[in-house]
Structures are given as structure tokens and as C-alpha cells.
Amino acid sequence: MTDQARTPPATPRACPICGKPVAQAFRPFCSPRCRDVDLNRWLTGRYVVPGREDDAEDPE
């Protein structure tokens, strides 16, 4: 069995910001604009990766 036989065909993906087809150059987004929108959401705190309550912010 070859690697191609085990790998399912790639399904077309949609941009997580606007839903348009993904552009290979900006993957997983469709454009620089959507990439920047996503970055802005991370930088402004709209997206947050939760941590455990016992995680110390400053271990010193």
C-alpha cells in the first residue's frame, strides 16, 4: 500500500474568518486581510487559550 492510498483526498477548506476558499499563499486564510483580522483578534484578547487555575503567571 502506498502513502497516497492511505491519505484521503484533500477537501476544499474555507477561510475561518469569511468562509471564502483558502488561498495557498495565505493558508489557512483566503487573503492578507483575513490573516490580519485573525492576528488582531489574538492580540486584543478576543481569542484566549484557557489555562489551569494552578498555573502561576509569574513563577518568581
TrEMBL record:
Keywords of this entry: Metal-binding, Zinc
Cited InterPro entries: DNA_gyrase_inhibitor_YacG (IPR005584), Znf_NHR/GATA (IPR013088)
Pfam families on file: YacG
**Binding partners and assembly:** Interacts with GyrB.
Q: Which cofactors does the annotated protein need, by name?
A: Zn(2+)
The text of the family note is: Belongs to the DNA gyrase inhibitor YacG family.
Molecular function GO labels: DNA topoisomerase type II (double strand cut, ATP-hydrolyzing) inhibitor activity; zinc ion binding
Note on how the cofactor is bound: Binds 1 zinc ion.
Where Zn(2+) binds, per the record, is at C15, C18, C30, C34
Purpose:
Inhibits all the catalytic activities of DNA gyrase by preventing its interaction with DNA. Acts by binding directly to the C-terminal domain of GyrB, which probably disrupts DNA binding by the gyrase.
GO annotation, biological process: regulation of DNA-templated transcription
- What's the source species for this entry? Bradyrhizobium uaiense
Q: What is this protein called?
A: DNA gyrase inhibitor YacG
